């Protein structure tokens, strides 16, 4: 990054600052969603004795909607 040239235009600098701020705000939301998933996984563990790692795998397979992964996962974890 030694060849990085910082724009001198105030409008360009503001655009960069706004983009960085927006990216940071997105990261805060991502962290909050991860915490929410952890809390849901803990509820599933408490209410149904479902291990958090199994719940998270179920969520991932459901989210990706990949039927092949679902079949492989079910063959491993569903009796």
Notes on the protein architecture:
The protein is mostly helical and 79 residues long. The chain is 80% helix and 0% strand. It has three helices and no strands. Helix 1 (10-48) crosses helix 2 (52-64) and helix 2 runs antiparallel to helix 3. The longest helix has 39 residues, at 10-48. The chain is elongated, with a radius of gyration of 21 Å. The mean pLDDT is 89.
Report the mean per-residue pLDDT as an integer: 89
* Straight-line N-to-C gap: 54 Å
Beta content: under 5%
**Whole-number radius of gyration?**
21 Å
Helix content: over 70%
Order of helices and strands: HHH
Given as residue ranges, the uncertain stretches (5+ residues, pLDDT < 50) are none
Number of strands: 0
Structural class category: mainly alpha
Tally of alpha and pi helices: 3
* Shape label: elongated
How would you sum up the major sheet? Answer: none
What topology emerges from the helices and strands here?
Layout: H1 10-48, H2 52-64, H3 67-77
Helix pairs in contact: 1-2, 2-3
Can you give keywords for this protein?
single chain, 3 helices, mainly alpha, 79 residues
Question: Can I get a quick summary?
Answer:
This protein is an all-alpha fold.
